[in-house]
C-alpha cells in the first residue's frame, strides 16, 4: 500500500471508464476484437501448445508497472505478507488437485533484491519468476474493484 494508506489503484482512476478505454484499445480484426494472448493454441504431436511473444510480454508488463507507479508512487506497501501459492510443478497438471501452500511477500521482495545483484548467469527463471509472480499477484489484488 502506498505511504501507509490503503492502496487502491482502481479507486485512483475514478472518473475513468477503465474497461471501456481498455476494450477500445484492443485492435479490431474483422468484426471481432483481438484477444491479448499471442497466438491460438496449436497442436504438435497431439499436444496442445500456446506460444508467447516475450518482447510483447515485457512491453505490456512495463506499461502496467508505469501505470501503477504513476498512480501509486515508486514504492508500494502491502497490508498483508502471506498469500496462497500453487507450486509451479503442479499448476499445469489438471489430472490432480494441487496442494495449496503459503507464499510470503517479504520473501518475494528479498528475492527481488537479491536477484538485482546477481549476474545473469546466476538467475534461475523457474525460481525467480515465481517470486515475481507473487509480487504481481499482490499488485493485481490491490487493484481489484
Question: What is the string of helix and strand elements?
Answer: HHEEEEHEHEHH
Strand order of the largest sheet: 1-2
How many domain modules?
2
Shape verdict = globular
Oligomeric form of this entry? single chain
Question: In terms of per-residue confidence, which ranges show pLDDT below 50 for 5 or more consecutive residues?
Answer: 1-7, 11-20, 26-39
Helicity level: 40-55%
Strand residue content: 5-15%
Give keywords.
two-stranded antiparallel ribbon; 46% helix; globular; 145 residues; alpha+beta; disordered N terminus; 6 strands; 2 domains
Plain-language structure description:
This protein has 145 residues and is of the alpha+beta class. Helices cover 46% and strands 14% of the residues. The chain has six helices and six strands. Helix 5 (105-117) packs across helix 6. The protein is globular, with a radius of gyration of 18 Å. The chain starts with 8 loop residues before the first helix and ends with a helix.
Amino acid at each position: 500500500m502506498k505511504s501507509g494508506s490503503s492502496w487502491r489503484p482502481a479507486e485512483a482512476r475514478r472518473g475513468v471508464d477503465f474497461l471501456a478505454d481498455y476494450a477500445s484499445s484492443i485492435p479490431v480484426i474483422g468484426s471481432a476484437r483481438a484477444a491479448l494472448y499471442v497466438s491460438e493454441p496449436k497442436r504438435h504431436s497431439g499436444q496442445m501448445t500456446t506460444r508467447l511473444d516475450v518482447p510483447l510480454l515485457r512491453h505490456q508488463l512495463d506499461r502496467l508497472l508505469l501505470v501503477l507507479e504513476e498512480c501509486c508512487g515508486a514504492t508500494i506497501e502491502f497490508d498483508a505478507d502471506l498469500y496462497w501459492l500453487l507450486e509451479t510443478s503442479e499448476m499445469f497438471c489438471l489430472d490432480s488437485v494441487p496442494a495449496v501452500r503459503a507464499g510470503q511477500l517479504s520473501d518475494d521482495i528479498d528475492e527481488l533484491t537479491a536477484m538485482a545483484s546477481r549476474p545473469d548467469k546466476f538467475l534461475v527463471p523457474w525460481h525467480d519468476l515465481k517470486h515475481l509472480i507473487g509480487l504481481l499477484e499482490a499488485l493485481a489484488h490491490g487493484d481489484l474493484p
